[in-house]
Amino acid sequence: MSPAPQVILLDSCAYFRLGQSIRPLLKGTFGPSPPYSLYVLAALDQEYLTSSRLRSKFEWVHEAQYVQDRADKLYTCRGKSAKDAETVFSYLAGYAKANKLKLAPEDIRAMAVAHVREFILVSDDKGVQQTSSEHGIDCWSSLKLLKVMLDHNRIPREKLIEIVELWQYQNDLPCTKDVFKLEFEDIFGITCPI
């Protein structure tokens, strides 16, 4: 019997940043035993539908191939986990307010679920990364996820370069270009292509 996969939960920004470039993004598993399995919160679709900004910027999200990719990989807490996630959500929301962090409710929900279920969280939001670090939540950047995917043959090096060039073209780098180049070179050990 194979071990249950290690869940990696993508926040909405990570999904929007990667979902169109890696097709299918969520389907299947990759990596060592236990393998990694990518998920998004079920609330992602609702967040998308209620935001005209997201709908206009990421029109591809409602196309059939992406809806199908998300269909089996929408995560929802149930039972005790749901109750625990609500408690953690309330605590993290209070923490964010007390520390003047501008965290969206969707980001706080993702951190709460990752904390309760001991999932890896992928987010490029500096406030999410800081809060996760301070509360024992394993939080990766999109670049770190790409490195793991590259190391485990989930994506080829050409796809990595294509994604980075697309982020620059779309003005969607997760941080300033100078910081991005340093992070890229630190994570991948090669010169940043942009």
Please describe what this structure looks like.
With about 190 residues, this protein is of the alpha/beta class. The chain has one domain (about 5-140): 5'-nuclease (Rossmann fold), CATH 3.40.50. Helices cover about 55% and strands about 10% of the residues. The protein is built from ten helices and five strands, in the order βαβαααβααβαβααα. It has helices at about 10-20, 45-50, 50-55, 65-70, 80-100, 105-115, 125-135, 140-150, 155-170, 175-190; strands at about 5-10, 35-40, 75, 120, 140. Strand 4, helix 7 (about 125-135) and strand 5 (about 140) form a beta-alpha-beta unit.
Number of helices: 10
Instruction: Name the beta content range.
Output: 5-15%
CATH architecture: 3-Layer(aba) Sandwich
> Roughly how many Å is the radius of gyration?
16 Å
- Based on DSSP secondary structure assignment, what is the total number of beta strands? 5
User: At the fourth CATH level, what is the homologous superfamily?
Assistant: 5'-nuclease
Mean pLDDT score: 96
CATH class category: Alpha Beta
Shape, principal axes of CA atoms: globular
Given helix and strand content, the structural type is: alpha/beta
Helix content: 40-55%
The largest sheet is:
5 strands, parallel
Task: Assign the CATH topology.
Answer: Rossmann fold
H-E string: EHEHHHEHHEHEHHH
Strand order of the largest sheet: 3-2-1-4-5
In the residues, how many domains can be counted? 1
- N/C terminus separation: 44 Å
User: Poorly predicted ranges (pLDDT <50, ≥5 residues)?
Assistant: none
